[in-house]
Amino acid sequence: MSSRTIEAVGRKVEIFEAGEGDPLLYLHGFADLHGVKPDPFPFHQELYQTRRLIAPAHPGCAGSDEYADLSTVEDAVYHYLEVLDTLEIDSFDLVGHCMGGWIAAELAVRYPRRVSSLTLIGASGLFVAGAPIGDVFMMAQPARGIEYEDLRRMLFASGDTALGKELFPDGRGEVDDEMRRYQMLRFSSFIGFKPPYFYNRSLIKRLHRVTCPAMVIWGENDGFVPRDHGEAYTKKLSGANQLEIITGAGHAAHLESPIQVAGLITGFLS
Length: 270
Known about the structure:
The chain is of the alpha/beta class. 36% of the residues lie in helices and 19% in strands.
């Protein structure tokens, strides 16, 4: 397994890549590889046992250059098309978490013939009346200047889980980790800072264009993207059979229950 940097249309893109087999493109979220840590979590390690996992860092995140003209989710889609062209990958399985799930869904509706399968984990991107996505920008401001319990409650099953405290500790964490979290917030603000945040009203009307098999996975206690969004994705994606609920997990279900979530994906892909 290794990280490397490629250049796509003049922009440097950091990519974690490991495993062999058919390509699986993974687009990350907040509590995730590139979003908070530089190394793969057990979830990602499970995925690359059977596939060639390709996990780029979003523009401006980790070691990727910022994309000066990035202002809409469509810009992010075209960025990833340019990354795929540089890697000479025509068709691929696609998995996305959180913001990465939104971009994955937008990519699949625009270029359905290139996406062999689509898996969404706690994906944002939809406007669902009465079920607004949480304000992560507000929660990223520490209470009393040092406490991130509210942010952890949004991203994990509760505000005091050991994993949540490890990745989003109170006070000041490691400088590199703090920078990754800031970069992820900055990236997300370019395409998602429009209350009620992280949505494209047109997306739900376009999901019928996704013709590949699809799977939607949601944490039972997701405090960031309400379950209504998972139900809407499942209903509108013709290739999705049912919403897979991860009991006892929050928004970062793939980190909190890595074997279960990875097992669902690898079983689905096989």
